[in-house]
């Protein structure tokens, strides 16, 4: 598995999926993908790619592994509490209808959590939640909104009963009134254009393997996508150290605001 092999693997991956590994930290991605290669019968990155690309299900599993689709409802509850008690009420004081973006939404736990919060804070009002991800298979699961019991274990019994319908085989389906305000869409954060005019953007536990340059470009583009006064919410291990250079002010730890 030499550099030529790695370069050809990256070329093939980008051609098929639009995932550009040059924007990711190379040592971590080589190790992560190398683990898959070593567990297979392949003798190179390219041979591994060519093998999994022939099987739709295997390739989907590979992309899910590559894009690190780990999520849960109300992930880091203390931060979501701040979102409920401080951030969203402040935003609602300026705009009665919020435009929210869950960037890298994975299985949908984050946008559905947001929809539940908005329903509780503003009953009877409709807000827009855009939920995007790179992985088409994961987006399909998110849009379907059906989860196993272990996938909703972080929800309180009250919210589980209020916002989900019980299905056979220990499955739970998100109710239609929670799904109705969410727009699911495939989007590549490192390539595709960004919409403008968001009150709130969440990008949490998405950038773990991005290069520092890619992160800076991403957070700058989020700044431009926010309304004045809008807020970016990042993951608990993703503090933006140079946020002032990008134009943000600190609202609270892990919440960054575009000044009014």
Explained architecture:
The longest helix is centred in the N-terminal third of the chain and has 18 residues, at 77-94. With 260 residues, this protein is of the alpha/beta class. The protein is built from eleven helices and ten strands. α10 links the parallel β7 and β8 (226-234).
* Number of E-type strands: 10
Kindly state the mean pLDDT as a whole number?
Answer: 92
Low-confidence stretches: none
Count, helices: 11
Strand content: 15-25%
Helix/sheet category: alpha/beta
- Counting copies of identical and different chains, the oligomeric state is single chain
Helix content percent band:
40-55%
List the defining traits of the structure above.
11 helices; 45% helix; seven-stranded mixed sheet; 260 residues
Give the helices and strands, then pairings.
Layout: H1 3-17, H2 26-39, H3 45-52, H4 56-66, H5 77-94, E1 99-103, H6 109-121, E2 128-133, H7 136-144, E3 146-148, H8 157-163, E4 164-167, E5 171-174, H9 176-179, E6 182-186, E7 198-203, H10 212-225, E8 226-234, H11 243-246, E9 249-252, E10 255-257
Parallel strand pairs: 1-2, 1-7, 2-6, 7-8
Antiparallel strand pairs: 3-5, 4-5, 8-10, 9-10
């Amino acid at each position: 598995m030499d550099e030529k092999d790695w370069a050809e693997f990256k070329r093939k991956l980008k051609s098929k999926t639009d995932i550009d590994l040059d924007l990711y930290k190379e040592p971590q991605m080589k190790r992560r993908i190398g683990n898959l290669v070593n567990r297979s019968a392949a003798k190179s990155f390219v041979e591994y790619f060519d093998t999994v690309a022939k099987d739709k299900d295997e390739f989907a599993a590979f992309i899910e592994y590559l894009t690190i689709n780990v999520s849960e409802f109300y992930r880091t509850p203390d931060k979501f509490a701040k979102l409920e008690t401080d951030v969203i009420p402040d935003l609602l004081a300026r705009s009665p209808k919020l435009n929210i973006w869950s960037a890298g939404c994975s299985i949908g736990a984050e946008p559905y959590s947001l929809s539940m919060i908005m329903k509780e804070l503003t009953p009877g009002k409709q807000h827009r939640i855009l939920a995007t991800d790179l992985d088409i298979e994961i987006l399909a699961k998110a849009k379907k909104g059906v989860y196993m019991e272990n996938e909703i274990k972080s929800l309180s019994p009250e919210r589980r009963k209020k916002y989900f319908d019980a299905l056979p085989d220990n499955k739970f389906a998100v109710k239609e009134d929670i799904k109705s305000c969410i727009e699911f869409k495939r989007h590549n954060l490192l390539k595709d254009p960004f919409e403008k005019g968001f009150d709130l953007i969440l990008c949490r536990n998405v950038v773990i393997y991005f290069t520092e340059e890619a992160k800076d470009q991403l957070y700058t583009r989020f700044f431009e996508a926010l309304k004045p006064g809008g807020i970016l919410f990042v993951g608990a291990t993703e503090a933006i150290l140079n946020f002032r250079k990008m134009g943000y002010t600190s609202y609270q730890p892990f919440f960054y605001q575009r000044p009014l």
